[in-house]
Amino acid sequence: MTAALFFSQLLNGLQLGVILFLVAAGLTLVFGVMDFINLAHGVQYMLGAYLVAVLSAWSGSFAFGLAAGLLAALALGFVMEVLVFRHLTRRDHLEQVLATFGLILVVTEGVRMIFGSAPLPFPVPAALNGTVTLFEGLNYPVWRLVILAVGVAVAVLLWVLVNRTRAGMLVRAGSTHPQTVAALGVDVDRLFLFVFAFGAMLAGLAGAMAGPLVSVEPTMGDKVLILAFVVVVIGGIGSIKGAFVAAILVGLVDTVGRAFLPDLLRTLVGKSAAATAGPTLSSMLIYLLMALVLSFRPSGLFGGRPS
């Protein structure tokens, strides 16, 4: 194993982590503030990728496509909350799970009817294509570095919003004492509306960032949703800081484990056994990490409210 390969995989893990954070941040805000289990968060990630890909191709400008796509994702978040989610916020979690699973099926099939099942072309923006030399032997894609920068910038912005603004104060208060907040004259339903729409936009941003690296197709949000729930559980429901730390951990463990665990097993148990056990164990690592964290901290790394 060379140093270039190791650092390349390390950066890939960080890049996966920030994409998971963008998805999990909206998910943990919705669950922490609204006590709402939204299985349809993955389709919002998928819709973001489709919207930015289509608008970028139509306009010929990635910058326009990204801005218009995020505004469209925000608008769709408002529409979904008003038409669907608002009527489920005071239902039990089982009804929320069933309703949002049904929404996954409806939206996925709707996208398939419009765009087909084949992957939608979403090239890396021309201005951000190519590589940059980090050190001798390691040329790393510029687009992946952009994803890292965007993820860190969003994390800092969210921390400032949650901890240093009046809106963040209301979000934190609404997650723990919604009746008190309502008694003070705050429209809790409107607060929930903006939190949900903002979470949908974050998921759309994650889809837009990941789109050039993965297949933009109707079921692309399924796997990401599972990983995002793992991130939320490890970090602590409702905690933005926990979502960021957990997303980085999950991204690193998943990427580095898949890259190097099979080779490590070959030195321990031989090629034949490693070929069979390596991929299976690699895919299990993040769930073993979750079990380990929950065995010591059942509420996750950073508790259970926005922080």
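Above is the first protein from milestone M3; the second protein from the same milestone is given next.
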Amino acid sequence: MTNRHSSGLVERESFFRRLLTLPIRHVQQAIGSLGDLWRTPFTSVMTVFVLGISLALPATLHLFVKNAQQVSEQWDSASQITLFLKLSTNESSAQNLVKRISLYPEVAEVHYISAEQALKEFKILSGFGQSLEYLDKNPLPATLLVTPTQRSSQSQAANELLAKLVNEREVEQGKLDVEWLTRLEAMANLIEDIVLGVALLLCLSVVLIVGNTIRLAILNQKDAIAIMKLVGATDSFIQRPFLYSGVWYGIFGGLLSCVAVALLAQYLAGAINELTDLYNSSFVLQGLSFNEVVLLIVFAIILGLLGSYISVRQHIKAIEPNAE
């Protein structure tokens, strides 16, 4: 009874000892795998550069899409619906209509242009000011310029709002140029699909590159792996340094891609500022946010780990010590 109790205590102490030494072993193997990369600098640097460039391309395209969405949102918010009122509408009815439309949840702002103001502006812009003086009455109707909210600025929502506004009894006709909005949305969707397709292809290439690099490292240590198996090392113990190598490749490749994207954004920011100055406009190119940088590095680590895992699972199991 005492022997069983003491053996149970020994097993429990052995379990806790293994549990405590496991993180230390992981740290040792992670540092050891970093040393292996340091001992093959040319191969490691080339692999990191390929990974960094491969990840920088979709990250840069994402940056362009993000800034394009910022510009399109500004354009969308500036879109307006023009409502031409009936000639019989008096000033009081027009003002009541302005108040009613201002209460619409889809409307951000309503600007009223009276018939007299419209005629005055037309005289100035058309160049027929003297000829228009001979008209018996004002042929131009009062006009409302309705600015939708951000949510209602999209083409479908803007069309629905236009149909709703045209039903007002004082409105003779409504106009909304949604063709350019539709084209803009189609182009934005196309660019997003292209970015997604390119990103998937480049991510696949990252996995293959890491997997091939780890495969070569495994083949170079084939004899050492066979000896380790011969003395009783498990596959998981042998695989661990190679998995950490994939993690290191992902970390360094992700950091390099972030630096490359930041440098490219800084370079393009100057050219964009020169262009916007010519149009008396201001536009600030947005770079990657902190969350996006962290996400890019984490994604690079996942890809590196995936590539190394596929390689070690396939090749380390195939290495067996000679029975001699």
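Note on the second protein: The chain has ten helices and four strands.
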